[in-house]
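S1.2 Input.
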Amino acid sequence: MSAPPRVAVVGAGAAGLATLKALGDAGVPAVAFETADTLGGLWVYGAPGSPAYRTLHLNTSRGRTEFADHPMPADWPDYPDHTRVAGYLGDYADRFGLRDAVRLRHTVDRVTAAGDGWRVHATGPDGPVTVDVEAVVVANGHNRVPNRPAPYPGECAAQQMHSHDYRGPEQLAGRRVLVVGGGNSAMDIAVDASYAATRTLLSLRRGVWVVPKYLLGRPSDTLNGALARRLPWRLRQRISQTMLTATVGPPARYGLPAPEHGFLQDHPTLSDTLLSRLTHGDVQARPGIARFAGDRVEFTGGRVDEVDLVIWCTGYRVEVPFLDPALLGDGADRLPLYRHVFHLDAPGLAFVGLMQSTGAAFPLVEAQARLVAARLAGTWAPPERDRQAAACRAELRAATARWGQRRPHMRVDFDAYLAELRRELAAGRRRAGAAR
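S1.3 Output.
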């Protein structure tokens, strides 16, 4: 780099690379620290900390996932696999000259306030590294620390693993597999197991809406995207839920528990294959677990089955271990951030990607990164601190009304949030111009 870095970016996955690109466009020198030996984050199969498995594909369509500045190839399938996505992120880094700004195999251990800026401590292959910067952007993702459930009553003699450690169907061959969870990974792994395992059970404590990847001949997320540009989410919910029920039927039709919440009130679970495997009996639905007894598991309905492999698809904990806990308040997943980006009380500390979206992440981290870059370049200014806090409270109330207590601080509606970030960028530029 031709100038000392003014900004340190933690992570070189999609969020970190988008941040480097936006900072470069704004003329702000930066350096990124990445634990792995390659770029791409969670999409790099086999990289340290990556949860990618061999059959992993996008669960949002290509056109709704790509960066605006770097479209995916038009001849790609609608739902590319992890190899294509990892290559796409590598191409993104090459196209915009980002590789030289990334220090691979460098793990950030500690970030501390230092005068008017920040001191970043990292450990690399040649030992400790310390960098002083004006700002720090946390872009390390939140799918790295498995959330393991509290122990159930009884003793489980079956082998247990978290989906984070799943790599491919060969781990399931010949086993009596119990998959626990209702997210995208649970559905993918249950489908894999249905072809490789002796028997596959899928346990869900609560119902989820399972959405096929295609509806009416189009990628299903494009239909909701078209509605989002015109209608409030409650009306979209009624339309989408009616369409989904009419085309595939209610979840109970497949032996799954009925969802407690309406469609669009939780992260969508997409699978073309799961419903078919359920109707063929190759995956069998079960309710929540009541207790274990050796290789037997009793479910809340009283049914008992024998299993020898339990795969916990129970999500991830959100941890930012290198920051002072005082900066994280009640926890990283409950941290109020202005527009889900800027720390209210620590100037120069921003987060890109600390959210859970109803859609794809790439366009959102790209928009967040542009906001961060404009702030550090001086072309965007935030409102007063009390207005930022009021905006956070209003967003939390709306998110809680929609998503309940399921991480409301982090929840965003893909289309609404993307539009909000565009408005915020324009408003902040006007504020910055007025301040000059």
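S1.4 Remarks. The chain has two domains: 7-144+316-435, 148-312.
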